[in-house]
Automatic annotation (TrEMBL), chain A:
Membrane topology according to the record: Multi-pass membrane protein
Keyword annotations: Amino-acid transport, Cell membrane, Membrane, Signal, Transmembrane, Transmembrane helix, Transport
Entries under PANTHER family matching the protein: ABC TRANSPORTER PERMEASE PROTEIN (PTHR11795:SF447), BRANCHED-CHAIN AMINO ACID TRANSPORT SYSTEM PERMEASE PROTEIN LIVH (PTHR11795)
Name of the featured protein: Urea ABC transporter permease subunit UrtB
Annotated gene: urtB
Transmembrane segments: 240-267, 299-319, 331-349, 382-406, 427-446, 466-490, 497-515
Signal peptide bounds: 1-19
Biological source species: Ancylobacter moscoviensis
Pfam families according to UniProt: BPD_transp_2
UniProtKB/TrEMBL annotation, chain B:
Keywords: Signal
Keyword Signal appears in the UniProt entry: yes
Signal peptide: 1-33
Name used for this protein in its record: Urea ABC transporter substrate-binding protein
Organism field: Ancylobacter moscoviensis
Claim: rRNA-binding is one of the keywords in the record: no
Protein's gene: urtA
NCBIfam families reported in the protein's UniProt record: urea_ABC_UrtA
């Protein structure tokens, strides 16, 4: 209660101070400038509004940000478009009688930055600490020298420690590059900024004017060196994280192939298309949810996972029964037939859904990011890693612990023996192929979050998938896991030095050399081989 | 093993494509043989480029229908012959030959990528036919048989960079592109241009990625790092096609907003944005010669008719479509002027032909076989459309040979007599001065 009172009185005080300063500034003039709909004028008007302290200014600036500030009539005037499209006077907020035809005041990046700065300056005195925090950050980003007096005024009265440090940082960001600041003041600012230790701080520290005193330059250089050392360490961690993230994508794409190619020995060129069908299943599920029950949108991916598994699994079973079962043991024919199937599936999707990309939205729990130290981790990538590992564990469990898994292993190890034991090998073949395809479909659900959902989706993964399975060791799921992760990490560690194109080439060469040395991959199956 | 894959893939691809083309060709032959003028359409309807090129095929068919409703050309109906080169560059040349030799088309509208255009060039030269090429490209070419209705670098890239310098105060540049000829040449031109404007070498970062690159984490982090040097930074993107969606998604994920580091793209239009949630992209830019949001009566009417033809009232329009429309109308006008579809008569007749474009002006075919265009800069809005923030006051004439490149700055193209040359070297006074 006391705190609230203190804040309120602080707000009132600084508002009064601001209003006093702004007497010469003319809100009416600013409105006239806004009505010209020119970027320069809009920017000028915003800086006037930011310092005006007029209670209506907040509403005007936020209306501009939301595209509700409109202009029209002769001579042009500005209005705020209220609920239901009614035009309101920007100062009094009363409906206007003779409403002319209007257009929104245009906004570009420059104006957007000015809006951010202005609304920051205006809400520095907001009673809500969260808003003040945001405002302090916005003012810091804008580095607007004109906001300095207001910043000093609120800084002296701020009581919330979080907001206070944000305000101090904002002040330091402005002071650090401003002309005519005392040496001590600037060094203090460098310390405040340097303590942040991140990229943004680095940018600020590098903007110390060239004509600053040697002491200031030394302080900045020391702070920069410290941050750079720190960032280099975090950078390495970041690369490993990116590698794991890429590895999880490779694992998802390859794990279904580890079944159809690795366990069954079918060179399945239509594998990528199974991934693509899974992604399109997600799209269809989301469309249905959007039209019938938008509230369920956050659950769309969870709903899509089993559906994608069943749908692509079914397609897989159909392909196995109608084509592949006639071609067992004939690698080249299987390759050609499955390649043909992949073309048919692609063109079918192109005919049904059109050649252009389809938009698959991200549920709220997959958007955004959080920071660990200087490492920024996006939720989407994190969930994909978790999902890839879950799929891997589930698949391992199916193969190890269930009857169908046992039968699959039996059939792939010795078909005739298994048949003699009364296992329906035909049925097991179909189920195994269906399982591999279904898993590819589930991968498609995850990949729809990071890649284009287009008929070509699968093609970009087929080569990588084969690479992972061959590298990891055909017929071994653990090999696929280790292969995917090591290829991912190696790729991401190479990329900063060699560039994306050369990095990929280098990786291919490494894998080829490795396969020369160990033709059966990382984890070769021991004992009498399944391929005889 | 890999070799085996590629060979088998190619063989299988050919067979499937052949079948598809046969079906298409058969479908377009009319029941009774009234005398018509045939118009060839050479755009990929399958494979990676189908995403962009299918729309252009529909655009040509739409224009043919419109023209026939007006009574055709020279009293004859037009008839479109559609083939599918399936995003396969050598197949483009085969299909072009088929269109000209077997189908006897009077003109061909087609190609998207530069490599497909380069692959059909010898065919058009040998068989002396006409190709209209509707896509923005890297320049450094002018051929007698080709008419370029897309933008040359000075009609797109350079004005975009100027805009960023003047309006955003950008001092530091990331040139990011897909690794092939268009981005490489454009970036070479841009690098030379930026340096001529006083940008230091350490303030330019150039980055290439493979086709269809989907893991942008490292590169976006690098861009973020490059942008934290205390100078305003922008990204000039020549990233092609499908790779754009994951790139923009990653920008959004890592929280790079247009107000911090704006991205200006030369290959992202309304069609590409249709597949993305554009809310995190608001404010990023694109430079084109046409946007769907152009506010003119011509454009409004075009969009209305197009949506009626395609029977989809949400279908978007884009720049290469406008370029196709302009090329089509220019060809019709030139044929009427020449009174024949004979290429040797139509090619000279095309120079100087002027037709209305959709942004309210006129585009003219210049002697270098490129057209004049306005340049528009648009910012992405949250509905996937562009807000036009800048338009050049006048029309810009294409510089097919860039004045910023060593090998090409002395070259000009003029296909009128007496010069009749696509690469005339003004220093040596000879035709055939080597380009780069």
């Amino acid at each position: 209660m006391l705190l609230a009172l203190a804040v309120l009185s602080a707000a009132a005080l600084s508002a009064a101070a601001l209003a006093g300063r702004a007497e010469a500034q003319d809100v009416g003039g600013a409105l006239a400038q806004l009505a010209t709909n020119k970027y320069d004028d809009t920017e000028a008007a915003l800086s006037v509004l930011a310092l005006s302290g007029d209670p209506a200014a907040v509403g005007i600036v936020s209306a501009l940000a939301e595209g509700r500030l409109v202009f029209g009539g002769t001579p042009p005037r500005v209005f705020i478009q209220g609920e239901g499209g009614a035009l309101l006077d920007p100062l009094t907020r009363q409906p206007v009688a003779d409403a002319p035809a209007v257009k929104p005041v245009r906004v570009n990046n420059r104006v957007r930055r000015a809006i951010e700065a202005a609304s920051g300056a205006l809400s520095l005195v907001s009673p809500d600490p969260a808003k003040r925090l945001e405002a302090a950050q916005a003012v810091g980003r804008s580095r607007d020298v004109a906001a300095l007096p207001a910043l000093d005024a609120v800084l002296a009265k701020e009581t919330d420690p979080k907001v206070k440090s944000a305000l101090a940082l904002a002040r330091a960001s402005i002071v650090i590059g401003q002309a005519g600041v005392s040496e001590a003041d600037r060094i203090a600012a460098i310390e405040v900024v340097g303590a942040q230790g991140n990229q943004d701080a680095l940018a600020l520290l590098r903007s110390v004017p060239a004509d600053a005193s040697p002491a200031v330059k030394d302080a900045a250089a020391a702070a920069i060196a410290g941050i750079e050392r720190n960032l280099a360490l975090w950078g390495a961690a970041q690369n490993v994280w990116y590698g794991l993230s890429l590895g999880s994508v490779l694992l998802l794409a390859a794990i279904g192939l580890a079944i159809t190619f690795g366990v069954m020995g079918v060179i399945n060129m239509a594998h990528g298309e199974m991934v693509m069908l899974g992604a399109y299943t997600t799209f269809v599920v989301q469309e249905l949810i959007r039209t019938h029950n938008p509230g369920l949108f956050d659950w769309s991916l969870i709903i899509a996972i089993p559906l994608a598994f069943l749908f692509t699994g079914l397609i897989g079973v159909i392909i196995e029964r109608t084509v592949i079962r006639f071609l067992y043991g004939r690698a080249l024919e299987t390759l050609l037939a499955t390649w043909g199937i992949s073309l048919i599936l692609q063109q079918a999707i192109r005919t049904l859904f059109g050649p252009t990309n389809r938009e698959v939205g991200a549920p709220s729990w997959m958007s955004g990011s959080f920071e660990i130290g200087q490492l920024s981790i996006t939720y989407g990538r994190l969930w994909i890693i978790v999902f890839a590992l879950l799929v891997f564990v589930a698949l391992l469990a199916v193969l190890r612990l269930t009857r169908i898994g046992l039968e699959m292993r039996a059939v792939t190890q010795n078909r005739r023996m298994a048949a003699s034991m009364g296992i329906r090998t035909n049925w097991v073949d179909a189920m195994t192929f269906g399982l591999g395809s279904g898993i590819a479909g589930m991968a498609g659900v995850a990949l729809s979050q990071i890649d284009n959902v287009s008929p070509n989706l699968g093609q970009s993964y087929i080569i990588d998938s084969f690479l992972v399975v061959v590298f990891g060791g055909v017929g071994n799921l653990w090999g696929t896991l280790v292969g995917a992760m090591s290829l991912g990490v190696a790729n991401k560690l190479l990329e900063p030095y060699a560039g994306a194109v050369l990095g990929k080439i280098a990786l291919l060469v490494i894998v080829i050399l490795f396969i020369q040395k160990r033709p059966r991959g990382l984890f070769a199956l021991k004992g009498r081989s399944i391929e005889a | 093993m890999l070799n085996l894959f590629t060979q088998a893939r190619r063989a299988a691809g050919r067979a499937a494509v052949g079948a598809a083309t046969l079906a298409l060709a058969a479908a377009s032959v009319p029941a009774h043989a009234q005398e018509t003028i045939k118009v060839g359409v050479l755009h990929s309807l399958s494979g990676t480029m189908a995403i962009s090129e299918t729309t252009l095929k529909d655009t040509v068919l739409f224009m043919v229908q419109e023209q026939n409703a007006k009574g055709g050309v020279l009293g004859k109906k037009l008839e479109a012959v559609v083939v599918d080169p399936a995003s396969n560059w050598p197949l483009f040349a085969e299909k072009a030959r088929e269109l000209i030799e077997k189908e006897k088309v009077a003109v061909v509208f087609g190609c998207w990528t530069s490599v497909s255009r380069k692959s059909v060039l010898p065919v058009f030269k040998e068989l002396n036919s006409i190709l209209f090429y509707p896509v923005q490209y890297e320049g450094e070419e002018s051929e007698r048989n080709v008419f370029y209705t897309g933008a040359a670098p000075n009609q797109q890239a350079i004005p975009a960079v100027d805009y960023l310098m003047e309006n955003e105060g950008v001092k530091r540049w990331v040139l990011a592109g897909t690794d092939y000829v268009y981005p490489r040449t454009t970036n070479k031109i841009l690098e030379a241009y930026l340096k001529s404007k006083g940008v230091a070498a350490e303030d330019i970062m150039i980055n290439y990625t493979p086709f269809g690159h989907s893991d942008w984490q490292t590169i976006v982090a690098d861009i973020k790092k490059f942008g934290s040097a205390g100078k305003k930074t922008a990204v000039v993107s020549t990233i092609n096609g499908d790779a754009n969606v994951p790139f923009y998604k990653e920008l959004g994920n890592q929280g790079i907003k247009a107000t911090d580091i704006p991205v200006v793209a030369f290959s992202v239009g309304e069609e590409e944005l249709a597949g993305i949630d554009t809310k995190p992209l608001v404010g990023h830019l694109a430079a084109w010669n046409y946007f769907q949001s152009v506010d003119t009566p011509e454009n409004e009417e075009f969009i209305k008719k197009w949506r009626g033809y395609i029977k989809n009232d949400k279908r978007v329009t884009n720049d290469p479509m406008e370029a196709t429309v302009i090329g089509f109308e220019m060809w019709v006008k030139a044929v009427e002027k020449a009174g024949t579809t004979e290429p040797d008569k139509v090619i000279p007749a095309l120079i100087g032909v002027s037709v209305p474009n959709l942004s309210g002006g006129f585009s003219t075919m210049m002697p270098n076989h490129h057209i004049t265009k306005p340049v528009l800069i648009g910012e992405i809005k949250d509905d996937g459309q562009f807000d036009i923030v800048e338009q050049t006051p006048g029309l810009i004439v294409a510089e097919e040979w860039s004045p910023y490149l060593e090998g090409s700055k002395d070259l000009i193209a003029d296909w009128r007599s007496p010069l009749n040359c696509g690469n005339f070297n003004v220093k040596t006074g000879k035709c055939g001065g080597a380009g780069q």
